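Handout for the seminar on molecular recognition.
Each group receives one record of this type.
Step one: identify the two inputs.
Step two: read the structure output and locate the region that could contact iron/sulfur cluster.
Step three: write two sentences on what you found, then compare them with the reference statements printed after the record.
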Amino acid sequence: MPALLTIPIHSIYVAMRGTDHQLSHCIALIGKVGEQVSCGIYEQRSSSCKEVMAGDEQCNKARRAYNLSPIINQPKEAAEILC
Ligand code: SF4
């Protein structure tokens, strides 16, 4: 994880820069929210990023913040490909 892309949360944990503001997004997100986006550091993304699956609670919470409809009934295999 490139350190320039993170902000310290406390002595152990960091967060992706840009996720510390309401209605903002991670600095590594490429594209336009609501149109098409992708992770610019996909292979280096954190374990917490890897845990999020398309259509899960965290995903749909983020979608709601941008007034995007939730993803429902996403097959697990497809969710792993999308995230
Ligand atoms: S998956 Fe990529 S773009 Fe999304 S929060 Fe993690 S590092 Fe940022």
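Reference statements: The radius of gyration is 13 Å. Strands lie at 6-8, 14-16, 29-32, 36-39.
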